[in-house]
Amino acid sequence: MSRSAVMSDCQKARRDVLTHAKRVVIKVGSAVLTGSNGLDLRVVNRLADQMAGLHDKGIDLVLVSSGAVAAGCRVMGSCHARQDLAYKQATSAIGQSRLMHFYDEAFARYDTVTAQVLLTRADLQDRERFLNARNTLSMLLGWRVIPIVNENDTVAVHELKFGDNDALAALILNAVEADLFINLTSADGVFTDNPLENPDACFLPYIEDIASMPLANICRGKTGSGTGGMYSKLLAARRAAQLGVPTLILSGKTRFGLEKVFAGEELGTWIMPEARSISRRKFWMAYNLDPGGTIVIDQGAVCALTDHGKSLLPAGIADVQGDFGMGDMVRIEDVSGRSIGVGVTNYTAEELRRIKGRNTSEIETILGHASYPETIHRDNMLLDAAI
């Protein structure tokens, strides 16, 4: 297919989604919300103006918003937040209620109700708590309330942080079954290189196959006030694509940018979803759980998994790294260290070290039990995971 034909297909897909989208997750970062004096209330009000207009058209909206730390710095007279955890948690504690107050007042001008939803990774890693969060969000959207989601920085620890709100927003897509992900950033969209460092960097209006893009090569640097940068935005977009959700990376600094986009202007970078989406259960498994170790597999097992859709058997295991238990998430790599995917293991690391390279028929003789014939069942595995 010619490049012009691909572009035409992408343009049509974009128009169709923007015309028919019923549920949209919008993420706004600190680089958009902050100015020289910390949180910029003019930006908050402009964002609320545009979202209220979309909401009035019947679109369900979820806002994933940074800015609590910036709001806290604004109150304390300093926007030079240190990186140590206690400082950020304290400023977040001061700023979170004020950030919500600003949003409440901005949306109240349109008789639109907002709700604060604070989450930690532990809330979404536990399946029951994840379902509770999903049900709460569903109820709020059914009431035509706009949930405003943020990480609960005040209680989160490094080991249980999402890392940035781009990662959190991608997980929210799954929880609310969104049709579209809009990521508001300080850049005009995605470029072939960092335009601040390379004046020859080319703007990308469409990305057809994000899985094939060398993200680390084109995403150098991050904003001074944010925690992610373009790499984390594209990683979130790649996860969204696997879920079958398109992403629009759009400048949050452009006046009336959201209104213009839904009116048909081709602003920002549109990232196409994959043709075959993964199940929401697999998405939750792959991106809510942390890998506890690594299973290294030989080339025969790689082919069985990637070319034939098979489960992973002990015979294909070349090495076992880490100390994980039965039911834990693990990385799957080939002998060169290339990532193959992730999956939930049926055996502990110690057991796998004893049965690696052996036939399934030998498991019971070696371990004294053979609870499962496979190490990782294909239903509990996601290949090419965006980890």
Automatic annotation (TrEMBL):
CDD domains the record matches: AAK_G5K_ProB, PUA_G5K
Annotated PUA domain residues: 293-377
Protein's name according to its UniProt entry: Glutamate 5-kinase
Species in which this protein is naturally found: Desulfoplanes formicivorans
SUPFAM superfamilies: Carbamate kinase-like, PUA domain-like
Domain of life: Bacteria
Biological or metabolic pathway of the protein: Amino-acid biosynthesis; L-proline biosynthesis; L-glutamate 5-semialdehyde from L-glutamate: step 1/2
A single GO BP: L-proline biosynthetic process
Lyase listed as a keyword: no
Enzyme Commission numbers on file: 2.7.2.11
Residues annotated for ATP binding in this entry: 27, 227-233
Gene name per UniProt: proB
Entries under HAMAP family matching the protein: ProB
Listed Gene3D superfamilies: Acetylglutamate kinase-like (3.40.1160.10), PUA domain (2.30.130.10)
Family membership noted in the UniProt record: Belongs to the glutamate 5-kinase family.
Residues the record lists as binding substrate: 66, 153, 165
This protein's UniProt keywords: Amino-acid biosynthesis, ATP-binding, Cytoplasm, Kinase, Nucleotide-binding, Proline biosynthesis, Transferase
GO molecular function, one term: ATP binding
Primary location recorded for the protein, binned into one broad class: cytoplasm
